[in-house]
C-alpha cells in the first residue's frame, strides 16, 4: 500500500490526506523531512541508495529522510527516518523548511541537523553504502558522483543557513 501524506498549500497548511503517489503524480505539495548527519569531527554522512528503491535507486544522498506521515511533525518524521535507515535514536534539530521544486514533484522539505555516531546500523534495504566526507570532499563528490536532486538543493541551502548564523 502506498504511504499516506498530507497535501499542503504554499504556506504549508494541511489541505487533506492523499497517497504519496497521488501527490507526486499530480504535483501536489506534501512534506518531506531530511537530516544532514554530522559526526563529532564535523564530517558529513553520505550514502548511496539501494538499487531496489523505487525513487532514485543507486544515487547518492547528502541527507537521510523521507515523507512526513499524516499527523507527524517534520521533527518526528526525521527521527523516524533516522531510526529506520541508520538505526539512530534521537531528535534531530529542524533548521528550516522550503518548497523544493527539484526531484519527482514539488514538496516542502524540512532540513534538520543531527550529530550522530561514526558507526551506524544502515538498513541494507535502504542504504547500499555510506561514508563520512569533509565539506571539501563532499563538494568534489557533488560534481563527480550522481546525487539525488534534493541533495544538491538541501546541501546548498544548509551551507547558506550555517554561514548566515556565524
What features would you describe in this structure?
There is one protein chain. With 166 residues, the chain is α+β, with helices and mostly antiparallel strands. Helix content is 28%, strand content 34%. The chain is built from 4 helices and 9 strands. The protein has helices at residues 20-26, 74-86, 135-144, 149-165; strands spanning 4-8, 14-19, 31-38, 44-49, 60-61, 63-67, 93-100, 107-115, 127-133. The chain has a 4-stranded mixed β-sheet. It has a 3-stranded antiparallel β-sheet with strand order 5-4-9. Strands 1-2 form a two-stranded antiparallel ribbon. It is globular and about 40 Å long. The termini are far apart. The model has no long low-confidence stretch (mean pLDDT 93).
Amino acid at each position: 500500500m502506498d504511504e499516506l501524506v498530507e497535501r499542503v498549500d504554499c504556506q504549508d497548511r494541511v489541505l487533506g490526506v492523499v497517497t504519496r503517489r497521488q501527490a507526486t503524480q499530480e504535483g501536489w505539495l506534501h512534506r518531506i523531512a531530511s537530516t544532514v548527519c554530522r559526526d563529532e569531527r564535523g564530517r558529513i554522512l553520505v550514502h548511496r541508495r539501494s538499487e531496489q528503491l523505487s525513487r532514485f535507486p543507486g544515487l547518492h544522498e547528502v541527507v537521510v529522510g523521507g515523507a512526513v506521515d499524516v499527523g507527524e511533525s517534520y521533527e518526528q518524521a526525521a527521527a523516524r527516518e533516522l531510526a529506520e535507515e541508520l538505526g539512530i535514536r534521537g531528535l534531530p534539530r529542524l533548521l528550516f523548511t522550503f518548497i523544493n521544486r527539484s526531484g519527482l514533484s514539488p514538496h516542502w522539505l524540512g532540513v534538520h541537523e543531527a550529530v550522530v555516531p561514526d558507526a551506524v546500523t544502515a538498513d541494507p534495504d535502504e542504504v547500499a553504502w555510506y561514508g563520512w566526507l569533509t565539506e571539501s570532499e563532499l563538494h568534489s563528490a557533488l560534481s563527480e558522483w550522481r546525487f539525488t536532486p534534493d541533495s544538491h538543493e538541501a546541501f546548498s541551502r544548509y551551507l547558506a543557513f550555517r554561514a548566515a548564523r556565524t
